[in-house]
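Lay summary. Proteins are chains of building blocks that fold into shapes, and those shapes determine what they do. In this project we predict the shape from the chain. Here is one chain we studied, written as its sequence of building blocks.
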Amino acid sequence: MTYKEVANKYLEDYGLSIGDTILINKKDITYEGILLDRAEGQEDGYLVLKLSSGYNIGVAIDNTTAKLIEKGEKPKIGYEKSEIPHDPTKENISIISTGGTVSSVIDYKTGAVHPKFTAFDLVKANPELLDYANYNVKALYNILSENMHPKYWVEASKEIANDISDGCDGVVIAHGTDTMHYTSAALSFMIKTPVPIVITGAQRSSDRPSSDANINLINSVIAAKSDIAEVSVCMHGSLNDSYTYLHKGTKVRKMHTSRRDTFRSINAEPVAKIQNRELKINPDYNYIKRGTQNLQLNTNIEDKVGLIKSFPGISEEYIEYHIDNGYKGIVIEGTGLGHVPNNLIDSFKRAKNENIPIVMTSQCIYGRVNMNVYSTGREILDSGVISGLDMTPETAYVKLCWALGQSDDREEVNKIMHKNMAGEISDKTSIKCFLN
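And here is the predicted shape, written in a compact code that computers can read:
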């Protein structure tokens, strides 16, 4: 029998199920607690208990006996379905959930966070949203953001376009924060929109008292009702709940693992600030206004693109591996102004000869790539590497995926990468953006 089969038989023999309060004896030691579900991917052959102290422990079932103290119920996650009120005097906003912490709940019996909230649950958990709009809610998928994939960008784009075609006044997407800036860039290239598309998330799950989801969601709805007909990210601008910033979808990046104000505009200033439920647009920002462009959707994309970070001692094998394994393009996170060790240059030349575009960005994040300053940079340029200008590595990666979906010709891809498609390239990079 497998460990899992042994564990299941153990529970069956003692008449135990998840949620029961049980007593386990092992080598003269007694443990009493609530029987919990094991996390996915963890080893079988043991039981997990929630002790009265609040801590969880794992007990191997070998040489143990168990006793049922009290029957319990397996925790249920989510809300019972009911109708969301409709007010004909309010705008109609589409809320699409993809998962992530903003669409997660914490199971207080287990202490685990589950991406189980749907868009419907988000409205139920944040009833103040009903003061601002009517909602068409749907769960596109329920994944943590590390599991995001380019094919999901395509699905999300099509779903958003359908909602816009059906007449919604704006779209809010609930998304995990770790890869939110990849998705915001992808949607920026794939969709030209007549209404606002706002992506938001949370650093703490929606049902926790310390959650940042409520203000992020409400302010995202406010942004979705605004005149800013672009793809943007709405997240906390401070550690408290005082205000949020609206960031351009191609100019934003997650900059801290856990802070509420983790998202920052890179080589740009925020599009707007939302404070006390009032949206104030940056007067220096020239935005696309609601209704001035028709809906256009272009979801052609190539997902066989690599993203490589340069480091001291990096071998040409990193580049050769991607060429040999059929990658259609590569983005390099170079050092400083866009540099890599010169031992990579022959591999860059090979990529050029095989029609594989390589785009250079900087791991400095802020600033602009300029490979004309130093001799190594000029050699890199001569080998056919394309400058990523002041795009972040993540935006350059997404744009290269999209560009290769438009053409497999390296020279045409070069032109696309240097054309400002969705505000991803600044005419000049201001020091003010870094200092702020």
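What the prediction tells us: The two ends are 61 Å apart (CA to CA).
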